[in-house]
């Protein structure tokens, strides 16, 4: 009895019939390929994507410590903290991690739409969740890489102490902050139709929220109206929680901030997933 299939019978044709998925579970190979592509993309211009934001963050530290005096204390949570030690963690997470995460995530799909190569993201056998995971993962990789460089440089800077007191809080809020801006970047990349749209979000949303989040000051010293605005700014909870990991004190409830940012990350992730699934502004 022959072990060959009958003439005209092609098992692969049955497996690949229309509507029958070939990859029934997670496409790990495709997910890894797109993630590596995103990482290699920003590594090809690492002077601009990695070293430039790290240098800018360090310049912020140098200028503010020289202008105000590195030893000037800031009263946070009932404790006087040297000014340089106070602003260093905020600079790492806001300028060194969140801004690069947004810049990376807001570029991928947008440049595909502008150059007409968006099909390279939509045609491969990747689910919407796999596509979103790869884009966000690439952005967060850039964020942690720049943040690590900033932290190492600040550790060598005289008069600045950036030894973590609670490393778990540093990693957790660094993860939440990078993911928050990565999801915002993906959503911006889906919505924007040209680079001016993405730049408008950066200049009129990301930059104001970042600079008015308590990076350079304690919100306890603000007038009641400005203090209330700070407490509805999600950047404030990210920076405050990240600073808590280094200083052991914060000007906001760390647990409340963690829950708020986690909830926002989940909501933004679902919003990005729905937009990708519907093909909003991608499949027109």
Please name the defining characteristics of this protein.
3% strand, mainly alpha, two-stranded antiparallel ribbon, elongated, single chain, 284 residues
Give structural notes:
With 284 residues, the chain is mostly helical. It has one domain (44-278). It is built from twelve helices and two strands; from the N terminus they run H-H-H-E-E-H-H-H-H-H-H-H-H-H. Strands 1-2 form a two-stranded antiparallel sheet. Strand 1 (73-76) and strand 2 (79-82) form a beta hairpin. Helix 5 (108-115) packs parallel to helix 8, helix 8 (167-191) runs parallel beside helix 12 and helix 11 packs across helix 12 (254-278). The longest helix is centred in the middle third of the chain and has 29 residues, at 128-156. The protein is elongated and about 70 Å long.
Q: What's the structural blueprint in terms of helices and strands?
A:
Elements: H1 11-15, H2 28-43, H3 46-68, E1 73-76, E2 79-82, H4 83-105, H5 108-115, H6 119-122, H7 128-156, H8 167-191, H9 195-211, H10 224-230, H11 234-247, H12 254-278
Helix pairs in contact: 2-7, 3-4, 3-7, 4-7, 4-8, 4-9, 4-11, 5-8, 7-8, 8-11, 8-12, 11-12
Shape: elongated
> Quick one: how many beta strands?
2
% residues in beta strands: under 5%
Estimated radius of gyration = 23 Å
Poorly predicted sequence stretches spanning 5 or more consecutive residues? none
**Helical amount among residues, as a percent range?**
55-70%
Protein name: Transport permease protein
Main location: membrane
Keywords: Cell membrane, Membrane, Transmembrane, Transmembrane helix, Transport
Membrane topology: Multi-pass membrane protein
